[in-house]
Amino acid sequence: MKPTARCLAAWKEENSLYYIAKVEVTLKKVVLDPQGVAVENALKVLGYNNASKVRVGKYIELTVEAEDSKTAAIQVEEMSRRLLSNPVIEDFCYTVQEAGG
Predict the structure, then answer these.
(1) Residue 34 in contact with residue 94, Cβ under 8 Å?
(2) 47 in helix, strand or coil?
(3) What's the confidence (pLDDT) of residue 100?
(4) pTM, to two decimals
């Protein structure tokens, strides 16, 4: 595994054309997260007083067909910037891994 920028981890085997991409999208730290606040309050009502700073995000998993892991990662980066996240208020990180046969 070779970690690189933006939480990218890529694995490659010879002749592999399918990759599993896992994308996590979260609100930027400076953006208020009302859903996170609601979850934190609900946890406290349930007696979990040790939970704090709750942030809620999205998890997206998809299969990408590409020539190699680098190409797949570039496409996942573009998808994440253009559609899967709102770059004004959200950050994202992802992994790309060879799909198992």
Answers:
(1) no
(2) coil
(3) 78
(4) 0.78
Given 3.30.70.260, 3.30.1280.10, 1.10.1060.10, 3.90.170.10, which CATH number is that of 18-98?
Answer: 3.30.1280.10
Measuring CA to CA, how many Å separate 54 from each of 47, 49, 64? 15, 12, 31
Tokens standing for residue 57: 């995000």
**pLDDT for the residue 1:** 39
DSSP label of 71: H
**In sequence order, what are the beta bridge partners of 22?**
61, 95
pLDDT bucket at 11, cuts 50 / 70 / 90: very low
Among 56, 35, 39, 61, residue whose Cα is nearest residue 48: 39
What is the torsional sign of CA 99, 79, 74, 93? negative
Quick one: tokens of 73?
């990662």
Q: Report the pLDDT averaged over residues 71-96.
A: 98
